[in-house]
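User: My collaborator and I are trying to settle a disagreement about how two of our proteins should look. Neither of us wants to argue from intuition anymore, so we agreed to look at predicted structures for both before our next call. Could you fold the first one, then the second, and keep them clearly separated?

Assistant: That sounds like a sensible way to settle it. I'll keep them separate. The first protein:
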Amino acid sequence: MKRLVYGVLTSAIFLSNASAYAIWMEKEKKDKVNIYFGEFSEDQKERSKFLNKLKVDTFYPKDIVKDLKREENSIALTLSKDSDLILVEVSEPRLNKNTQQSIRKISYAKVGATNTEALAKFDFISVEKNSNTFKLLFDNKPLVKIKVTVVSPTKWEKNFYTNENGEFEIQTPWIGTYLLEASFEENIKGEENGKTFDKTIHVITNSINLEQGLPWKINK
């Protein structure tokens, strides 16, 4: 079974539900976006019991979200305009029993591939608008030799690695939604809501939707 190496620590519930789970967004229309939590490669979307743990209060660009509605298996957003969008969810630090380190996780869920400048601290940007070449940035600096997992609409997966410029090029042969995923560890101590942490793990998903390409069908 395919697995995504992701953890979303917005609550203790997320800690107990395997690291394959992630937050991601998909654009339904130009001004309509849905937020999901689950496992993209397995087409598994959790319901409100888990979604209600998400704060969903930090978006970039700012003030672009006009309306937010919590539904049964998604959080529906209405945007003021057609744009790339990124959600940032910061978890409280939690103790890793194996390493005895207190770890804070920050999840970034992005939709779109038009921006050529970073929207958030950790971000995928397009080298050119809507191109298949991306750059992975942290604090506007390229990240080198970082693994990026791409899951296709057919649930096919392939790993890519950023080069010395933080860039990588993907293949998108099929129609539908692709999900890019990456993570980065920041070994800096700090404090979040009165709780100290030893390091921060940043994780990001970025969905892109293609309307042209090869049709496909999964045989069940």
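The second protein, kept apart from the first:
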Amino acid sequence: MGTHLPQEILYLIATHLQDAEASLVPCTRVCREWQVGFEPFIYSKLIHVFSADGVSKEGCRRAMSLSHFQEVTSGKGLARRPLIRHLSYHIVVPVDLPDWQTRKQKGYNLENNVRHNNDIAFQSAIVDLFNTLTHWDPNLRLSIELALLGREAGKEPHTSDWDIAGEYRYDYKKGRTKSVPVYRAHFLDNGASLLPDVACIDRLCFNDDFPSHQIWAGSAMQIAQRCITLTEMILGLDEYIRPDHIEYIQARRQAVADGLLTMPHSLRVFRLLNEMESPWKQMMAGLNVLLSDNDFLSQNILYLSLSLRELKINQLSLTPDFLFPLDTESHPLPTTQSLYWPSLEVVELIGVPPRLPSGQWVAHPTPEDQIEIDEVEDWEMIICDYEEGNVSRPIFDREHFHRTLISLGHAARHMPFLRYMQYRLAHTPNFRFEFKPHGSSGKAEWLLYSLYRPDQRVADAWKCPLVQLDAKLPAMSIRTIIADWGQHIAGSQGNVKN
């Protein structure tokens, strides 16, 4: 009799079992009616798929191998495809190579069989997944997370365990040359060309919380390129890299910059999660993360943003006027008046480092601390001593922040559907800027929380008087309402109303 329960009752049973974290798979085998009632609960939630058979991971429910996934979504299982919305794909490679746990011994070579075999497995796993999904209905919308999973712990040839390989200490000062560089999975030569175009992937995420997803940024961009109807991409680069392994940081930034030029035209949401690229100590010069004199990443983010709906960037150093380029006097360049963002609604620049991509600081120490910095003779001592080198930088480079807000102001006036803009510096003292248009009212709220004070050029760029309206706000805040914001934004043809 139980096999003839109404679907409403089966729904309640499935909900109860799911809340109890019990497996629903046995219920699908009772009868056809139970299969129809329980499978939507199984397949509509996050499914963990492993690229190889016989592999599992603690905490992964609803898990299966890729071969089993292919089986249950083919033939009689075609009806399951529309149920599947969210897939976490674990790319199984032979050896787990955690970051900063080993150091080089005599004879070490970065081009070794362990990394090569991992790359082979990575490439094969991605190709197999894309060959599977290329046959799916293009109208299906699938969200995929990608991350590496090593079958077993291991080391590369000619290395030894060294759990402080990511540090700079009195007893370990040779990390630049002795620490084994982090492993990130690459495609082999022209390997990405083996990927077929896939039309059913709507969202792509490279952001496994811990450990790092361990996929090279350039390879991630190549994967995204093949998702021809992709609308959202989350690129997690929040990985710790030793500051003295600067070549990796520079190459990673350039790989992202190059990849942005190949993104599908369908992309509407782009989120980049970076890790703070800082020197060992605040006393030191910043890191130059550029491979050349040109900041191609800032330029290419601008080009990408023109077709986006949301742009969210965390902890990434950018040129201050990257959204709306200015001349040396902070005036708009002639070419910028053609810039227009017809769809952009959200711009979030969070945790912005107080340094330019070239490494130049935009927050400076007090004169007393600067004297102390100038007198440093032994930087090794400063780096190794936990108590040294942590000076404050309370003095803002005002022209830098003028330029930043002027650029954002001109850009915002070319964003007719902007709902929210935020720029937050990762620094003390604070610099937090927020801008919120109030929809059909034609008004907008402008808020700055900082010791820095904008000049008239900033007010002109935003077409607003910068006065504090709310007496309850701290003295370091500026809040103003732009009553006629709607008159200052771009028209439907991209012409600014002056």
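Some points you might bring to the call about the second protein. Residues 113-133 form the longest helix (21 residues). The chain has two domains: 1-42, 43-433.
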